[in-house]
């Protein structure tokens, strides 16, 4: 009973947005409501500022901060809320994609003036594919921005969502007066102060009530009535099961900076958002309320303490309870491991915990046993799927710059790849190593970390590849044999031994697909 209650209490989610839309600010305001922090400014943004591209110390500093904010847990109205942080910087998009495998729902933040931006499109596309329940928060209503209906249209068209507003703004920017909460049927007046404004809520069941004029003035009252009529006519009624199956996305409006509309969002969120659900393993569907423990690694963070070279593997608990000092099966290594100091995360600190429940994230100290996607269980050989690798955008040869440190270099590359910093391809032809990354920034991070954590030096050399495609091996097929022979120069193995075709241009990729239609090429690899 206690176990089931604990599961029902959990809300594990991520906030996604294009950088600068207000993700950090919203996170901070949610923590304020949860009483997890006492003042604004306590949560540091983990974004790597544009100016920091070549400032290694800044990268290190930022990495340190992002560890502290990797998981932010707090209690609110008898719910245990776990916010999983997702890096906003596009060079770290793969990190975000992996984190999305560990969330049960997401909140999408959109800037009212900028509308739907590129990074939001990419992240929402992944959530849509995985049918993750999404709530949209349109932020910065205190600024001049797009018309609410235009914005809702844009969200539907560019993000491919089907929305229904659960709150609606009264005016915008200079004329912003407040919000009508369709879900709770009340009005929250905007005063522009940064205080929590719970007391400003006025219940308003019937919008035709003439008192509305007294509160927001005649023209705003008329406009609001018109808008709400339009909302009712155009958008479907909110339906929780449609939201939970990823078919309907409720929308809230507000201003995170002004702490406005955040309480409404949070109160609705804890009511409608899912508690941890069943998850598909390769072998079978695993229910969260099964007694036996299972979980998977979705993130590895190295170098928490610069004095020790240790890593923290983040495990999302899928089923059962995770208990301290209990042996669990590391399925890939087929080895039992036990953990004396599993960490749980709270707003600004981490602490050792004895028991954790489905939906929770535990951080396990790791000396190189884990890589992303590993499964831990009470004993069953389960493999959780769905940690994808995408084709990198950049490719470079990596060379050893200090022949005496070859061992250190190989170890460093190995471990950094396990952490998911980048992808390694070993060419079939000559065994040379190629590093593929999502953004150019990673090359600097790798070089810096190899030197500072492993004492190894490397140089890079351009490798002219356009895309990596995973090749489905079909040894009996003569066409596959022919492809392997002709394209030998462009073939490599990834870290898990899968065959990869490194196409040198979009044109050559297209020609290859035409010439060898029977050879199956994929642009993602699910490990
Ligand atoms: P991110 O994590 O999504 O990248 O965004 P972040 O919260 O850091 O917010 C980006 C900028 O937008 C910040 O300003 C923040 O203060 C501002 N902001 C967030 N919410 C609102 C809002 O509701 N209204 C208005 N007007 N601004 C908002 P900054 O100047 O870039 O940073 P800072 O110096 O304020 O930290």
Bound molecules: guanosine-5',3'-tetraphosphate
- Low-pLDDT segments, ≥5 res: 45-56
CATH-assigned homologous superfamily of the largest domain: P-loop containing nucleotide triphosphate hydrolases
CATH class of the largest domain: Alpha Beta
Structural class: alpha+beta
The CATH level-2 architecture of the largest domain is identified as 3-Layer(aba) Sandwich
Question: What is the percent of helical residues?
Answer: 25-40%
Rg of Cα set:
25 Å
Assess the beta-strand content as a share of residues.
25-35%
Globular, elongated, flat, extended or rod-shaped: what is the shape? Answer: globular
Q: Mean pLDDT, rounded to whole units? A: 87
| Order of the strands making up the biggest sheet | 28-25-27-26-30-31-29-32
Distance between the termini: 35 Å
Largest sheet: 8 strands, antiparallel
Which fold does the CATH topology of the largest domain refer to? Rossmann fold
Number of helix segments? 14
Counting DSSP E segments of at least 2 residues, the number of strands comes to 33
């Amino acid at each position: 009973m206690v176990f089931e209650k604990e599961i029902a209490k959990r809300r594990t989610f991520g906030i996604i947005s294009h950088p600068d839309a207000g993700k950090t600010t919203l996170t901070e305001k949610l923590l304020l409501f949860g009483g997890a922090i006492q003042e604004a400014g306590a949560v540091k943004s983990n974004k790597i500022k544009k100016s920091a591209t070549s400032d290694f110390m800044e990268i290190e500093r930022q990495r340190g901060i992002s560890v502290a904010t990797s998981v932010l847990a707090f209690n609110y109205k008898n719910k245990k809320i776990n916010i999983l942080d997702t890096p906003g910087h596009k060079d770290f998009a793969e990190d975000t994609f992996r984190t999305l495998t560990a969330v049960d729902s997401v909140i999408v933040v959109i800037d009212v003036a900028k509308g739907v931006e590129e990074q939001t499109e990419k992240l929402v596309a992944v959530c849509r594919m995985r049918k993750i329940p999404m709530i949209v928060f349109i932020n910065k209503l205190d600024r001049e921005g797009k018309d609410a209906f235009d914005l809702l249209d844009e969200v539907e068209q560019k993000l491919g969502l089907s929305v229904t507003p659960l709150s609606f703004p009264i005016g915008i920017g200079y004329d912003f007066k407040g919000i009508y909460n369709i879900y709770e049927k009340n009005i929250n007046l905007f005063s522009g102060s940064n205080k929590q404004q719970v007391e400003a809520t006025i219940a308003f069941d019937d919008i035709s009530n003439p008192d509305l004029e007294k509160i927001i003035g005649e023209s705003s009252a008329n406009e609001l009535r018109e808008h709400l009529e339009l909302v009712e006519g155009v958008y479907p009624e909110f339906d929780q099961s449609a939201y939970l199956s990823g078919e309907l996305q409720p929308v809230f409006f507000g201003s995170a900076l002004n702490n406005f509309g955040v309480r409404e969002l949070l109160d609705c969120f804890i009511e409608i958002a899912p508690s941890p659900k069943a998850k598909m393993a390769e072998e079978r569907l695993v229910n969260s309320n099964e007694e036996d423990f299972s979980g998977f690694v979705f993130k590895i963070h190295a170098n928490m303490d610069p004095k020790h070279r240790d890593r923290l593997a983040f495990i999302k608990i899928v089923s059962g309870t995770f208990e301290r000092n209990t042996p669990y099966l590391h399925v890939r290594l087929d080895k039992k491991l036990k953990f004396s100091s599993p960490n749980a995360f709270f707003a600004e600190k981490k602490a050792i915990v004895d028991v954790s429940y489905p939906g929770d994230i535990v951080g396990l100290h790791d000396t190189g046993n884990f890589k992303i996607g590993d499964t831990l269980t009470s004993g069953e050989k389960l493999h959780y799927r769905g940690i994808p690798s995408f084709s990198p955008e950049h490719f470079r040869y990596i060379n050893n710059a200090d022949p005496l440190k070859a061992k250190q270099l190989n170890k460093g590359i190995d471990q950094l790849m396990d952490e998911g910093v980048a992808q390694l391809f070993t060419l079939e032809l000559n065994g040379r190593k190629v590093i593929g990354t999502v953004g150019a920034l990673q090359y600097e991070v790798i070089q810096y970390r190899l030197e500072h954590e492993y004492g190894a030096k490397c140089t890079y050399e351009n490798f002219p590849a356009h895309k990596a495609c995973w090749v489905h091996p079909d040894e009996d097929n003569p066409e596959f044999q022919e492809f392997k022979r002709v394209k030998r120069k462009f073939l490599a193995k990834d870290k898990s031994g899968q065959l990869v075709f490194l196409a040198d241009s979009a044109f050559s990729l297209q020609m290859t697909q035409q010439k060898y239609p029977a050879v199956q090429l994929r642009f993602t690899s699910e490990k």
